[in-house]
Amino acid sequence: ENLKNAIVGCKILYTICERSSNNINIGFAGVEAIVYTMMFHHSSEYIQDMGCRILACSSSHSFISNNGIFDLDLFDLICKMVEVILSAMSGFPNSLQVQNNATIALSNMSKIEENIAVLNTEQARMEVVLTQAMTRFPECQKRCEEVLEALAT
Fold first, then answer.
1. Rounded (5°) CA angle 76-92-142
2. With CB atoms counted within 10 Å of each terminal CB, which end of the chain scores lower, N or C?
3. What is the pTM of this model?
4. CA–CA dist 45, 29 (Å, integer)
């Protein structure tokens, strides 16, 4: 029953992201819901895939608020986003869908300077999963290289 509800919730949030012409921000609560759903249903490839898809369209945020002030809650959420994305990649290394959507999310995150510090907290693990992804799936290579390059700067 919990998994069925999680799947419905993922479908709803993904539909919001997908139908938006400018990748509507599903908000802090929406991202937090996906992160915790991915943590709870870590063995569901479907949840991990949908979660990575949603995070890919919601990953262009930094932990600096609009008024230039550091936002600790947002920083913590971005740390959790990175953790669940890497866990999805590790948990489903042979899933093109999971790897593809995870690398889109990480690539989007790596384009925001403030997020590099968050990505660097998982640098060793990230290097392993990204290297595996681009070895298995050439279509992920460019995004993997973008993230690894951002980490090196």
1. 75
2. N
3. 0.85
4. 22
Q: What is the pLDDT of residues 114-141, one digit of tens each?
A: 888 889 999 999 999 999 999 999 999 9
User: Residue 43 to residues 19, 35, 84, 101, 107: CA-CA distances in angstroms?
Assistant: 28, 14, 12, 17, 24
Structure tokens at 54: 């949603």
Distance CA 68, CA 134 (A): 36
Contacts of 7 (CB under 8 A, 6+ apart): 46, 47, 50
The identity of residue 2, as a single letter, is N
Tokens 């949840």 -> residue: 47
How many other β-carbons are positioned within 10 Å of the β-carbon of residue 46? 15
**Three-class SS state of 63:** coil
pLDDT of residue 87: 97
**What b-and-e string marks burial along 72-89, b requiring 16 or more CB atoms within 10 Å of the CB?**
eebbebbbbbbbbbbbbb
C-alpha 81/C-alpha 58 separation (Å) is 10
- The pair of structure tokens assigned to 4 is 């069925």
Residue 62 backbone phi and psi in degrees, to 5: -115, 175
Amino acid symbol at 63 = F
Closest CA to 104 of 124, 123, 85: 85
